[in-house]
Predict the 3D structure of the following.
Amino acid sequence: MEPMADDLRRTTDQDLLAQHVAGEPDAFGELARRHRDRLWAVALRTLGDREEAADAVQDALVSAFRAAHTFRGQSAVTTWLHRITVNACLDRVRKASSRKTSPVNDPERLDQLLDPHESAEAPAERQDLHRELFAALATLPAEQRAALVLVDMQGYPVAEAGRILDVPVGTVKSRCARGRARLAPLLTHLRGEAGDSGEREAGRNRTARASVPPAAGPRDAGTSDPAGVKGGGGRT
């Protein structure tokens, strides 16, 4: 079994998907293992709630498992997986909006968005800034929020975000610009409070087009188990 696992780890994403379609029982599990952390991070930042993010990732993985035969190689497998995940998230955002539910006024939910290490170790001021940031993000329309999460928080190039969202590059730029404009007053406030006095001065001098500050460092929150994603989210 171990040599087989090693072979799977050396297999490309596209070949794993093809093997899954051909009936290899472990291929999709390896594919999910590779990408689940970033899928989890995108879902968590977009939805602002661990339970909702867990359900969205579960839905996305099940959908990808069942729809693998439809993959035609017109994009990278990771782009395809992210697109399915983002769509699952947007469906949940829209449903939540119709129920008029939101994590904005629930500090416990906002706390959950912090990386576990930051929750324990970061200065209180930084945690407060993150809570304010996520509260502001939760007020944006779903499409703008998804674009900002991908580009500004997860660091995807605009072109890749466009492929994930299945929209033109110009649409991604427009959504990001509109989202940043809506957040600009708060972002100026957040940057104005970060760091020393020099950083505060620089924050005041930033334009309204400044990007959303990343939620955590390059090693974003993830989860260790795609089948048991609820309650996950440790560092990768």
Q: What stands out?
A: The chain has a mean pLDDT of 75. DSSP finds twelve helices and no strands in the chain.
